[in-house]
Design a protein that fits this description.
Blueprint: E1 12-18, H1 21-30, E2 78-88, E3 97-112, E4 115-128, E5 131-143, E6 167-171, H2 175-184, H3 195-200, H4 211-226, E7 231-238, E8 248-255, E9 258-265, E10 270-278
């Protein structure tokens, strides 16, 4: 039955942080970045700032904070960061004081093939030392509990053709990588580190790679080909889960100032699609 969520639209939360060089250096190390940190943190590092800080005693069985704080108390157990549309207004200087103003832009209830869905859009605006630096329209989707185990991924394609993608980086997400990202984002969602829980409670075939980790890897791919702080805009949409221990292909191609990106599973399925706009075309 549909619920009226209108009272939650416009709700705001203000959080504060600092773009600490130690945390930013660890973020680069997590992504296997090389070289010396510049004057600004990596473009994906805004996802490591102004993090939720609920006490451990206030976490639910899945590791997320109990519902009903800033976010609406959606009574659906599975929660996923589905997409973001990011505008980079200016670099975030190392050491700067960061403020994030988060506003619930919309709450929409729908019915899908897997049952009831609730989409919550959150408009995040970040400033660094008082200057606007990042705008991020984030979409979170809540879903019903799984009723049966998810089928395992299809076998890897030995002849997977990536020739249409000039930019390519392949890696296999490991338990340490997922652990590091969860630690750096203070994310205790158990599907990313607790294999029995992921399999037996949420019916995934393995540990789930965090969506923003995959997005951060795609942003890192852009930096590897375009240099530091290359983008004016970046949008991603998660389409299929990626799993720990399964190969992930990060690919991209540039056409003028536009970049098209994808994260592909070993079987060729699209895990994430993304687009970006370059600040200055080389």
């Amino acid at each position: 039955m549909s619920k009226d969520w209108s009272a939650w639209v416009g709700r705001r939360e203000v959080t504060h942080d600092r773009a600490d060089i130690g945390a930013a250096t660890r973020w680069r190390a997590m992504l296997d970045g090389e070289g010396v940190m510049g004057a600004a943190v990596p473009q994906s590092f805004h996802w490591g700032l102004c993090l939720p800080d609920a006490p451990t005693a206030q976490l639910g069985p899945d590791g997320h904070p109990h519902r009903g704080g800033f976010l609406p108390p959606v009574d659906l157990p599975r929660r996923m960061w589905a997409s973001s549309a990011v505008t980079f207004l200016a670099p975030i200087p190392v050491g700067s004081a960061v403020t994030r103003i988060s506003t619930i832009a919309s709450v929409t209830q729908k019915s899908g093939g897997t049952g009831q869905l609730v989409f919550v859009e959150i408009d995040h605006t970040l400033t660094a030392d008082g200057q606007a630096v990042v705008q991020d329209l984030q979409t979170i989707v809540y879903r019903e509990a799984a009723s049966a185990p998810m089928p395992p991924s299809a076998p890897p394609k030995a002849d997977l053709d990536l020739s249409a993608w000039p930019w390519q980086r392949s890696l296999t997400p490991s338990e340490p990588l997922l652990f590091r990202f969860s630690a750096l984002t203070f994310n205790a969602h158990r599907i990313h580190y607790d294999l029995p829980y992921a399999r037996e409670q949420e019916f995934y075939p393995g540990l789930v790679v965090q969506g923003p980790l995959t997005a951060s890897l795609l942003l890192d791919l852009c930096s590897r080909h375009l240099g530091d702080q290359p983008l004016a805009r970046f949008s991603f949409r998660g389409l299929s889960p990626a799993f720990c221990g399964e190969a992930l292909h990060l690919v991209g191609r540039q056409a003028g100032s536009d970049v098209t990106l994808s994260a592909l599973g070993a079987d060729g399925r699209t895990v994430m699609s993304a687009t970006a706009t370059i600040k200055d075309v080389p």
